[in-house]
Amino acid sequence: MKLRIGKTLSAGARILKENPVIFIPGAAISTLTLIINHYAIDYYQLQEASTELSELISLQLNYQGFIRVVSFILIAFFSLVAIRLAYNTTRGEYSLSLSAKIAAKRFIPVMVAVILWFLSIFIGVILYFIPWIFFDFRPSPLWFIFLIIFPGIFFAVKLYFWHYIVLIEDEKFFSSMSKSWSIVKGNWWRLSGLMVTLILIYIVSFIISAFLPEFFPENITNFLIMTFYYPLSSATYVSAYKTIKAKPEEDNQY
Asked: How far apart are CA 214 and CA 212, in angstroms?
């Protein structure tokens, strides 16, 4: 079926209204994101420190790095929980624990799919640097655009549902890649528009928050924005996935 941006966003909001439990993993993601920002690593601090302090600072940086790595892993997990919970909601299943169990069970295969997705996006980087490394030839900036930016955007959209299919359909890596490629056919521009729209919603939300009175704590404002955005994004993409994979004669209310 053809994807409609406005209808898909409305369907995503309807999923959240039907099952507000999706905001729980959203709140977890927001909290972990704030933790990552709080434990930002200042490598210049270690370089400029005296020898006596460098060991203590190094231990502190290692601690901060550990916290950030664990937070990133948990963010990935709760993102999968939100996606699976949104999908289950469209099937009349509202259990957070069930979605968490499925996300945990399929965590590693989905993460492998995500990593492969990132590598497919950056295939242009490899093509760009091959002549530079092996033939001592530096391509022009125009080649940078054609080999990196355009292919990266193209593959990012065509294979976006790769990890969704692994999580939702429990398919293997390459069959899910092929399925994502095929179902996006005919909806590439519409899916691209949906991605841009969601990114703009995120950016505009933070721009508006910058004009709020000073008595609104910045961390609280950021937490509320992210807690709403991540579930909305997950639910909207689930709706988009169900729409574009549905047959023309099927009526997909989500």
From this structure: 6
The pLDDT tens digits for 115-124 are 888 887 777 6
User: Within a domain: residue 254?
Assistant: no
Q: What's the domain count of the chain? A: 1
For residues 174 and 180, give the distance between their C-alpha atoms in angstroms, rounded to a whole number: 10
- pLDDT above 80: residue 250: no
Structural domain includes residue 253:
no
- DSSP H stretches of helix in the chain: 5-18, 23-38, 43-48, 51-89, 96-105, 107-121, 123-135, 141-144, 150-158, 162-169, 173-183, 188-209, 218-245
DSSP tag of 49:
S
Give this prediction's pTM: 0.83
Report the range of poorest mean pLDDT among 38-47, 70-79, 84-93: 38-47
| Residue 83 is assigned to a structural domain of this protein | yes
Q: What is the pLDDT of residues 8-36, one digit of tens each?
A: 999 999 999 999 999 999 999 999 998 88
Residue the block writes with tokens 């899910």: 176
Task: Note down the domain range covering 114.
Answer: 5-245
Task: Evaluate whether 15 touches 90 at the Cβ level (below 8 Å).
Answer: yes
Residue with tokens 């508006």: 208
Asked, for residue 252, whether it belongs to a domain, the answer is no
